[in-house]
Every structure is written in C-alpha cells, then in structure tokens.
Specification:
Helix content is 0%, strand content 50%. By secondary structure, it is mostly beta strands. Strands 2, 4, 5, 6, 9, 10 and 11 form a seven-stranded mixed beta sheet that branches.
C-alpha cells in the first residue's frame, strides 16, 4: 500500500485547510486509515481515524469539533478537514493505514505511512 498525502500549507489562525491522502496498491486489507501529526521537538501523536469500510470515526480530544475526517472509497482517498486552526496545530501531518481494528490511536498499530505534509498556522 502506498499513501500520498497532500494539502498542507501556511494559514492564519482561525483559518481552514483540507488534507488529502490517496491510497494505492493492495488496499483490500485496509481496515482503518488515520492522521497523525508531529510538531517540532515533540513525539508523533494521533489526530483522527476512520474505518475504511464503514462510517465510524474516532478523534483525539484536542481536535473534536474542529477537525473532520472523511473518506471517498471510490477515490481511495481519506480527507482531514481542519477548521478553526490554532498555532499549536502546526506540525507535519501523516496519513497511515492499518489492517488492525484495535488501539488505533497508537502509531505502532499502523503498517503503512504517507510522506507527511507540512501545516503551519501563523498567529
């Protein structure tokens, strides 16, 4: 499975961005796709996940009400709509996929990773 993330950029606080992650290759075993992020000097952290063949979603507490994860199975693409962005949202955002259905907020559960896309929120 190959994951291609895009959509990052520079935005002012309060603005919005939409990230995309297109999957290719053997996606038949994909169960969950997720977004993680890593800010400078910090560990990578879970942001949001979506069950690839269902409608369930799961969010980190700090993005609830601001970020929305969605998918378009026909395009093999997962999106992360980010609204009301804050400077502390500045990070490299990674998409990832896993064939597992547990502990999906743990990066160790993920088999494949995209290359990351930079999101910078200015104050």
């Amino acid at each position: 499975v190959q994951l291609q993330a895009s959509g990052g950029g520079l935005v002012q606080a309060g603005g919005s961005l939409r990230l995309s992650c297109e999957a290719s290759g053997r996606t038949s075993s994909t169960y969950v796709m997720a977004w993680f992020r890593q800010a400078p000097g910090k560990e990578r952290e879970f942001v949001a996940a979506v069950w690839y063949r269902g409608q369930s979603t799961y969010y980190a507490e700090f993005v609830k009400g601001r970020f929305t994860i969605s998918k378009d199975n026909a395009k093999s693409t997962v999106y992360l709509q980010m609204n009301s962005l804050k400077p502390e949202d500045t990070a490299v955002y990674y998409c990832a996929s896993t064939s597992r259905n547990y502990n999906i907020d743990s990066e160790e559960r993920y088999d494949y990773w995209g290359q990351g896309t930079q999101v910078t929120v200015s104050s």
